[in-house]
Amino acid sequence: MQRVLRACVPLVTVVTAFAAVGCLGILPGTLPTPTPSPILDPLVSGVRGIVLVGPTCPVQSLTSPCADRPAAVDLALYNAAWVGPDYGPPVVTFKSSDDGTFRVTVRPGDYILARAPCVDASTTCNQFPTVTPQNVTVKPGAFTYVTVHGDTGIR
Description:
The chain is an alpha+beta fold and 155 residues long. It contains two helices and nine strands. The strands form two sheets. Strands 1, 2, 5, 7 and 9 form a five-stranded mixed sheet that branches. A four-stranded antiparallel sheet has the order 4-3-6-8, with no helix packed on it.
């Protein structure tokens, strides 16, 4: 026992607490590997979802329903804390894919999800389908799921 203490004392002073582990009878390399805890990276958060537009048929009835369909739509997230006209500058703009799905990475916070601003001043800039703006809260380390409903204007 005395022999072990003499061997450990210099190591403790040089290597600090790691040598003390060897003095307790636990051999180096025999400690269990710690399980890493999940790290909530604020950059691994955002909004994901699907865009569904309708009506997609000029005439719709109970006997001939016309379900909303996925669509590619230009969208934007705006800072919900913006005070001023409209929504202010977009935090990010993006487009849903042809199957209507989207995923965009943003920092945690409160946003307004709405149609992206029309950047083309020509007549080719189409604002249909219209999208009802909605509030979205993004939490750290998570993606908030949203279903966006668009109105095609077909009546």
